[in-house]
């Protein structure tokens, strides 16, 4: 198990039943980066990865 899995598991446990929009998620990511600028690159990579999940050209 990766260290980050603990945070993912907590997210799933606490909010797993909720439904959110990508608009809401994007706003939360922006707020997180504003408060934690050192995480700008990893958040950008995650957002780009999520945005391109269905791109067949990337495979």
TrEMBL record:
<dbReference type="Pfam" id="PF19599">
    <property type="entry name" value="DUF6104"/>
</dbReference>
<protein>
    <submittedName>
        <fullName>DUF6104 family protein</fullName>
    </submittedName>
</protein>
<dbReference type="InterPro" id="IPR046086">
    <property type="entry name" value="DUF6104"/>
</dbReference>
């Amino acid at each position: 198990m990766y260290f980050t899995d603990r945070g993912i598991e907590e997210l799933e446990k606490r909010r797993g039943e909720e439904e959110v929009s990508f608009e809401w998620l994007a706003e939360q990511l922006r707020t997180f980066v504003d408060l934690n600028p050192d995480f700008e690159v990893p958040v950008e990579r995650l957002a780009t990865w999520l945005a391109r999940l269905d791109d067949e050209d990337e495979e």
